[in-house]
Amino acid sequence: xxxxxxxxxxxxxxxxxxxxxxxxxxxxxxxxxxxxxxxxxxxxxxxxxxxxxxxxxxxxxxxxxxxxxxxxxxxxxxxxxxxxxxxxxxxxxxxxxxxxxxxxxxxxxxxxxxxxxxxxxxxxxxxxxxxxxxxxxxxxxxxxxxxxxxxxxxxxxxxxxxxxxxxxxxxxxxxxxxxxxxxxxxxxxxxxxxxxxxxxxxxxxxxxxxxxxxxxxxxxxxxxxxxxxxxxxxxxxxxxxxxxxxxxxxxxxxxxxxxxxxxxxxxxxxxxxxxxxxxxxx
Length: 282
Fold this sequence. Notes:
By secondary structure, the protein is an alpha/beta fold. It has helices at residues 6-11, 19-26, 39-48, 62-74, 89-100, 129-156, 177-199, 231-244, 254-263, 265-281; strands spanning 30-34, 54-59, 78-83, 108-111, 159-165, 203-209, 212-213, 229-230, 248-249. The strands form 2 sheets. The protein has a 7-stranded parallel beta sheet, sandwiched between helices. A two-stranded parallel ribbon has the order 7-8.
């Protein structure tokens, strides 16, 4: 785990999980991880590869997946790779066909694939694709994936873990309209569908991560010095959710942010407006 600053230690206290419980939960299971070639997905792949488990790793970059495979297999896991852009119909169809022919079925889906865009809507007036591609990867792709594999998961009494964001539960911020709207869309779909899936024996977990230090945040200069959780820390939280089956993970401080988003919404919106005005005057 990367070195934390004092404030990061306070914001992201250690997550302790029981390795033996994780091993028992994953013994002989088949796990699908989307967005597996970097960031949280990559770290989770390495964390789970120490178990006797079949990992199906999905990402766009086949070269990165191939580079990971040899090292992961040396740890004891069985690794299947599927290079695909889940926004593309034909590539999604190929993945779904592959999953439905698995001889041992599917036990766990970690829906992690994502794409971050920070841009003013006024810089996106001729960039509708900023919104269509975030909706494609954050909403339509996971909905299509889960709608197809629900019968497989029900048969194995499996689990779905959705990697969400604290922003889905807080007052929206400007310049993140494409990202926040698409993440919130799937978060709402998932929470709405949870009771039905749970009623069929499928465990569901929503993980609301704060800023996580991954390659996805690199283009945003301000985030390079902003407090952020390490990707290994995030992977350990997911690992604990696999055996604990807890329905949600939220940072301890998120409740205060949610309260402020309701009680102080008027003042927060005024502050955001003033900040934008100052930025416009520069």
